[in-house]
């Protein structure tokens, strides 16, 4: 009397691959690596554009310097993109190493950790971009009710560079949203695979 599937740990799921599944897995892994690398590059570009953004304007005898630390939203965007770039780089290396090893044993705990981390980084990036965009609109249009001036009239170069950094951060966040979708698929596929194997675990006499 023999049983199939004996000895598998409840925390690990050995995913059985046919020819088509192996091809899909390779394409999915390649897409994930490209998206994570793109997110790393774009987030790093956004960070550099904003941190190095400065402009000096001379008003009569007084010099006014605009820099990213003057706006809390830009500081938040810099921090968020720094975290996103570092995290995406680490996950890119993890994906490449996993592909080189050719491992097919997926750990549910690790899959959950990656999924939740991807979601957190994506939401953080979107929140930072929303705050930066709102501050940028106030800088362009001003706010008469609160008596806030249109600073972009005086610091046009600073505002244009900040807009470029925000646009780069937006592209990075879009890549992270797609990565989150892939990690969600990879996670919940483990549970689907475990369910599909249960009818095959029959007792043979």
From TrEMBL:
It comes from Brassica cretica (Mustard). Homodimer and heterodimers. Belongs to the Casparian strip membrane proteins (CASP) family. GO terms for cellular component: plasma membrane. Keywords: Cell membrane, Membrane, Transmembrane, Transmembrane helix. The keyword Acetylation does not apply. It is found in: Cell membrane. It is a multi-pass membrane protein. This is CASP-like protein. InterPro entries: CASP/CASPL, CASP_dom. NCBIfam families: A_tha_TIGR01569. Residues 26-175 form the Casparian strip membrane protein domain. The chain crosses the membrane at residues 33-52, 73-90, 110-131, 170-191. It holds the Pfam family CASP_dom.
């Amino acid at each position: 009397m023999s049983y199939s599937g004996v000895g598998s740990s409840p925390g690990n799921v050995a995913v059985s691959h046919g020819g088509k599944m192996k091809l899909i897995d390779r394409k999915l892994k390649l897409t994930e690596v490209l998206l994570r690398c793109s997110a790393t590059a774009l987030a790093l570009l956004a960070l550099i554009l904003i941190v190095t953004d400065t402009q000096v304007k001379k008003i009569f005898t007084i010099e006014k310097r605009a820099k990213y630390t003057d706006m809390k939203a830009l500081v938040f965007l810099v921090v968020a993109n720094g975290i996103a770039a570092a995290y995406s780089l680490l996950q890119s290396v993890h994906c490449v190493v996993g592909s080189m090893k050719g491992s097919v044993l997926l750990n549910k705990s690790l899959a959950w950790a990656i999924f939740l981390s991807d979601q957190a980084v994506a939401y953080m990036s979107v929140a930072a971009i929303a705050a930066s965009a709102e501050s940028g609109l106030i800088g362009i249009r001003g706010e008469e009710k609160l008596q806030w001036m249109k600073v972009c009239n005086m610091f046009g170069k600073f505002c244009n560079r900040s807009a470029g950094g925000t646009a780069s951060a937006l592209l990075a966040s879009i890549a992270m949203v797609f990565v989150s979708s892939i990690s969600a698929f990879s996670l919940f596929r483990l549970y689907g695979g475990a369910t599909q194997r249960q009818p095959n675990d029959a007792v043979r006499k």
